[in-house]
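Q: OmpA family protein, please. Structure only.
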Amino acid sequence: MRSICASLCTLLFCFTLIQAVAEIPLSGTAAFQDSLPIPVFSAFEGVVYKIPIKRVKLGYGNDILKLPVVDTIHWDRIDFPDSDIKETPFPGVNLTQGFGIIFTGTVKIPKTGWYQFATKSDDGTILWIDGQKIVDNDKDHRMRLRVDSVALRAGTYPVRLWYYQAYPTRYGVQLDGRYYHDLGSEDEGLVRDTVTLSQEQLLFAHNSNQLLPPAVHLLDSLADKLRLNAVRRISITGHTDNTGTPAYNARLSRERAQAVQAALQKHFTDRQVAFAVEGRGETQPIAGNDTETGRARNRRVVIEIEYY
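A: Structure for OmpA family protein:
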C-alpha cells in the first residue's frame, strides 16, 4: 500500500493532494479484475420492498422489514450501472421509485488480509459482511461511490446489501471488492503520513482548547478520507508559541491535541484504530517567536497517521 500523499504541510493542501488509493472507478465491469487474490461473491437473492413516499428518503431502518414485500429477484452479481429510468428498466423490478431491496449472498475470501469493498449507487446502499457494517453509502443521493476496508481471514462470509431508490430520474447499484494488504506483523509494511494543522487556519480561539467551526469541518473531511484506508494508529501532538508560562503552554497544547483527537475519533468507533496525544508546548518551534507570523506558525497541531 502506498500512503495517501508523501507529506502534507497544511490541512488545506491535504484536501487537494489526498488521492485515496481506495477511490475506485466502478463501472459496468469488475473494477478490481486486475488485482489478486479476488474476493468471490456468490449469486444474490433480493427481497423487494415497497416504501411509502413519506419515508422514502430516510434510507435503511429496522422498519423496512415490516413493509410490504412486492417481489423476490435473483442476480448473478450486483452490477447495474447508472441508468435513466425512462430508458432502462430496473432488472426484475416493475417500479421506478419508492422501493428498497435487501440482497443476500456470500463472499469467499481466498487469503487472510485487508480487503476493500465498494458500493456505487443512486440512491443509498449499506454493505454488511458477517454481520458487520462495512460500507455506509445510504440516504438519498445521486450516483455515488463509497469504499471502506476490513481485515478478514480466509473463509466464506454471509453478505447483505441494502439498496433503495427514492425518486426519479436515475437509479443504479454496483458492488465490488479486492484484496488490499497483508495483515503482517506489528510493524511490517507500515506507511506513515503527517498532516500539520496551522493556527492560521482558525483552529482555536485565542487561549482556547475549543475547536472553531472551520476546524471541525476540516477534520470531518480529513476523517472521511482516512476511512478509505487501513489506518492503524493516529498520533496527535500539540504545539504553542512562547507566550505565557511553559507550564501553561504545555497544558494548552495537550488540551488542543485532545480536542483534535475527539473530533477524529468519533469517526472511527467501528474500527480498531489506536489514538495517542501529546502536548509539547513551546519546546519545538518551527519559526521565530519574535514576530506574529512566526508565533502563528508555532501554534499548530501535528497529526501522524500510520497505515497497514
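A: Brief note, in case it's useful. Residues 40-181 form a domain with the Jelly Rolls fold (CATH 2.60.120.260).
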